[in-house]
Design a protein that fits this description.
The chain is an alpha+beta fold and 251 residues long. It folds into 2 domains: 26-106, no CATH class; 124-249, Sandwich (Immunoglobulin-like). Helix content is 34%, strand content 29%. It contains 4 helices and 10 strands; from the N terminus they run H-H-H-E-E-E-E-E-E-H-E-E-E-E. The strands form 3 sheets. Strands 1-2-3-8 form a 4-stranded antiparallel sheet. A hairpin with an 8-residue loop joins strand 9 (234-237) and strand 10. Helix 1 (28-39) runs antiparallel to helix 2, helix 1 (28-39) packs parallel to helix 3 and helix 2 runs antiparallel to helix 3. It is elongated, with a radius of gyration of 31 Å.
Length: 251
Amino acid sequence: MKNEEHKAAPAQPEAAHHPVQAPTKTNTLAIWGFILAILLPLIGLILSIIAISQIKKSNEGGKGLAIAGIVIASILLFFQLIIFVSLVNGAKNISTTTSSDKSSQSSSSNSGSKPAEVAKIGQAVRDGKFEFTVTGFSCGQTSVGTNQYLTKQAQGQFCMLNLSIKNIGDQAQSLFSGNQKLLNGSTQYSADDTATLYAGPSGSTSTWFNDINPGNSVSGTIVFDVPKGVTPTQAELHDSAFSGGIKVNLQ
């Protein structure tokens, strides 16, 4: 018998060895900065900024969280600053406004005269450092906005209060749309600050928030979201969150 030739099987190449890359570790400060940006914006902002610096050096993950933390914290701090400035300015004027109101009430009581009539649209009224003139009022809009990205839909209907505000004091005063109200009997409606911002010309914040120097005036629209079928009868206008306010008949 002939010996069968056995050919040796070709050697199989060894499988290429690819090291398994460990998942990138997320920077701890980036996580905490994002969480605290909502709860404690100032601390969250600081931690997020530090996290960005650390991530650049260590190549850790979490850069997106850190950036989000900075953005959220900055926005919340901005709104807190607006509220704080409004409260501080109101605190400065509360004693003056209160004294003026008491003096006016005392004078009216002593003279036995009838209470002063409520102003109408087009008539100037004063509260604290501001002189307000309502120039128009309308309801019925379902949305406001200057473009497709800055648009807000009403829950009910938008009522548009057009007015001019002049600083008649001797110091700058902050106007904030959130201090203004519409009245329908005993029912109060607060301004929709976002809709007010969107309703103005692009880039304008004239009646949403504005620092007005003595002698200067601004004009614009403050927007209120009220139920359909309701037409408020009065506006109550304030130079600050602490002022007594002044009423204007809208009908």
